[in-house]
Amino acid sequence: MKKVFYLILLSSSIISCLKNEPKTLAESEPIAKIDQDVFYHYSIWEAFVNKIYDGTLKASELKERGTIGLGSYNALEGELVMLDGILYEALGDGSVIVVNDTTKIAYANAAFYKEDVAFKFEDTYNYEDLRKELNLQTGSKNFFYAFKIHGTFQKLKLGGVPKQEKPYTEGLDVLIPNRPVFDKENITGTMVGFYCPEFIGKINVTGYHLHFVSDDKKSAGHVMEFTNASDLTGGYKKISKYQFDLPETNEYEAVNLEKSFQYNKK
After folding, report:
1. Distance (Å, rounded) from C-alpha 178 to C-alpha 173?
2. DSSP per-residue string spanning 68-135
3. In whole angstroms, how far apart are CA 200 and each of 107, 171, 244, 253?
4. What's the pLDDT tens digit per position in 215-251?
5. Residue 136's closest CA among 149, 151, 153, 121?
6. Which of 65, 83, 177, 230 is the most exposed place for a label (fewest CB within 10 A)?
7. Which residue, among 75, 77, 106, 102, has the nearest Cα to 89 in the 3D structure?
């Protein structure tokens, strides 16, 4: 009887151990994959307008959400431009740096860029002409679009943002009209950015919103105007899914989203 009882105990122990063994990779629960056809947005435009200039999103986390993007860093310390998965910071003095993965972001748009439609424009364009051409190319104004456009610009006006100090006292309605402006001539580089429909107005910038980084990585910023842009090549990706994450900060929780402000859009 003792031997039988021992064998039963031994068998039970083996079965128990097998049940409690760590699962192999194949047996583990599948890791959720990020949908690469989503327009990703951190914070919302109305929060940004109402002086929520600090977020908790890290540069490394934004890289997991796309390969192109734009936005701004905490305390408005520079314009954010993401090109081919690399995050650049256009500082208030016009210089450009590559940010480290721990850098915090106040506001951002991003998407994985794989163009649905490619184009090459033979004519020269100013910004207004290009917007009209893109309207013809995309057709509908009821979807989101991500753009990546390379070219040479005879004259290009880039906007920066001045770094702010706490307590933040001025909103974007004051800062944007008085932002640092950098005029560039005969410069070659890439514009990345997005088109958002009018219905997204309180959440994001509507119309076209593009940021630029030069081929030599010495100039970057928000695209304000340009003239005589030539050799424009690139394309767009149509996006029908939209996701945003709100900043989980005490400042955002308490903010009164009373101010509204939009870029001059076309």
Report:
1. 9
2. EEEEEEGGG-SEEEEETTEEEEE-TTS-EEEPPTT-EEEEEEEE----SEEEEE-S-B-HHHHHHHHH
3. 16, 20, 12, 21
4. 999 999 999 999 999 999 999 999 999 999 999 999 9
5. 121
6. 177
7. 77
Q: Which domains does the chain have, with CATH numbers?
A: 38-254 (3.30.1330.80)
For residue 16, name the pLDDT band (cuts at 50, 70, 90): very low
Distance CA 206, CA 232 (A): 23
CA atoms lying within 13 Å on the CB side of residue 175: 21
Residues 254 and 78: their CA atoms lie apart, in Å, by 25
Q: What's the CA gap between 51 and 134, in Å, rounded?
A: 32
What integer pLDDT is reported at residue 35 of this predicted model?
A: 87
